[in-house]
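Lecture 7 notes: from sequence to structure.
We start with the chain below.
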Amino acid sequence: MSEHAPDANADSNPPAPVTPPRGGDSPAAAPAATAATGLPALALASGLLALLAAAGALTGGYFIWHEVQRQGDWQADVVAQIDHRNQAMAQRLEAMQHRLDQALAEVEAGKREQQQALDRLAREQQALAAAFDHLRTRLGRRLEGWILAEAQYLLEIANQRLRLFHDLGTARAALEEADRRLQEADDPGLVPVREEIARELAALDAVNLPDLPGLSMKLAALAGQVAAWPLAGRETIPPAGPAGSSEASREPAPGGGWRAALARLWTALRELVRVRRTDRPVTPMLAPREEFFLRTNLQLQLDAARLALLREEPTLYRESLKRAAAWLERHFDARDPGVQAARRTIDALARIDPAPRLPDLSGSLRLLRDRLQALEATGEHSEKARP
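Predicted structure tokens for the same chain:
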């Protein structure tokens, strides 16, 4: 620092003008005067530098202190915010912990209720199992016994449907299902029952039940056509057909002479008189009132046959059709196409048996009941033999 001070002083204070020595001074006195003048200037420069250094230090210290204060305030604010957030987070965690504790308590309560329900169900199941065992002990039946009871019920259904309703389809299905049940039982003692069921199924296949609704509709249609059938002895003279036209074509064409007039007169007279040959005796014509009763009675006979058909009464059915056919032949024109078709229909209906003989399905049911009684007797003997 001592080396650079003169330079700084030299830069800040310009050198004084050198005055030439006077005439009486010596040259040796000039350097001494110069040295005496430079020492105070150097001290002044050093003092100024020290003063500037102190001011700079004070200013820097102030700025540093101010920055330290600002950083401290900022840190205090940050710490306060962190504390506030930590408190909010702690409160939130406490609330969540409280809710979690409540949920856990509810879950524990639900688990206890479920466990209680499971225990109750287990006790009920045990009670039911004990009751079932007691029931099986009292009835003395095994699993095969229940299967045989189902088969017996199916055979009873087959008999009822066939006897009461003539329902071949349901009876067949019940027999087949009963046979499957007996097959599941796997009991050699049931072989005769299954053989009887096979014979009954074959007998059902041989039955041909008539279509009663269709036959009833045919009889109703015949009764509706009675009013259109012509009676015997009331044939109308048909108009001249193609034969008359050919005969007229063979006659000479009418002209203007007396022969033409005579031909026209002959043709007119021939149209007035018609000669017919018949092998049947002449039937007297009925009065309108008698005709009405005849048609009504024929309709009633057809309706009676229809009712007997639906009620499956073959005797009344055939008698009604026989009476209707006799009246149709006696009182109606047999040459009419409608009457002929009606007669063919009545003959075909009379050949149908409305109530065919149905097979007896009680054999398999009787054999199965005998087998069940034998099994029950065996079970009772075994129960008595137990200590």
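Points to note: The mean pLDDT is 78. The CA atoms of residues 5 and 46 lie 7 Å apart.
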